[in-house]
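Q: My labmate handed me this sequence with no annotations at all. I'd like to see what the chain might look like in three dimensions before we decide whether it's worth expressing. Could you predict it?
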Amino acid sequence: LLNASNVSRRRRFRTDRDARRILGHVKCPHCGVDKPDDARFCGACGRAATGTEPSYKELTGAVPVQTADIVGREIAGRYRVLTKLGEGGMGAVYRGEQISLKRKVAIKVLRPELSRDPALVRRFNAEAELVARLSHPHTVNIYDFGQDADGSLFIAMEFLEGRSLRQVMTQEGPLPPWRALAIARQIAAALADAHGHGIVHRDLKPDNVMLTERGKDKDVVRVLDFGIAKLRDDDRQTVNAMTRAGDLIGTPQYMAPEQIRGEPVDGRTDVYALGAMLYEMLTGRLPFEGPTVMAILSKHLTDTPEPPTVRRPDLGLPRELDVLVMTALAKDPAQRQPTMERLGEDVAHLHAQLGGAGMAGPRSAMMSAPQVVQ
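A: Here is what I predict for the chain of 374 residues:
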């Protein structure tokens, strides 16, 4: 839900070596005991422990957690659970019905262990109340939140018909620049509104963006899951602890360097994530790829991605896109677009410049920069 509160106690790392030192513990495949990722043998059971670096799914919580089947149940006496839509590291999402209004809703039920910590429950209620106040055309509407009789934390929200941006990219590949920019402009508008309320998303990714239809309008963006990353962040004291628990804050492919280091985050952290998403929409490739989470995180900290036009010369992308995207992906937050509003203005200007309809906006100085910011 918001920014971290105990960042001063977090361990930080700035180099690949530091990253490996802090994140470099994996579980032995035979006995489950933690070991350094470069150890050839497990110190607990003595068996060979090669090939055990954790996968992306293991570290990000993309592997579904085991939750009780609640289909058919009522939640808090107000909602009826109809079908399960999906499951992830923080819990499960269901299609449901608000009983009093017979209205379709999406219900996110968080992992049972989250409700066992009274402090986390208080934070959940406070942050959910703040997020529920958001009212923007490109932000999902939160209807209700609370605890069921069994203590489970839940959020009831607007049920959306459509596809996630992840599904669209998987099915269609790279998007035409005009379409990618139109989508990015709407995402930026939703995030700028949230930032104005003091809310940093912290886990912006294609899975958290829905593309819906409104009349004749296609690709109408709705941004989801404001606030969930804050609960994870407050519940962990170090990146190392989060990694061992299989619950990494954010998604490695879209995480800004300062977020990986456990430093304070602000709106520019979301700017970086949107830059990574725009890169992927335009090229069909992530800015940084690797066989493991460690490899990806290290590249975010130390490497500079190829500009989109260099990464995919076969697509004939306009060179103006390079400045926009690479500025957003600057390692130093001070070198990125200073606000999400500014990024949205840059996107709107470039969209209009490239022939997009109805997207013109004020030109920012950042767009006139002749060089690619490293």
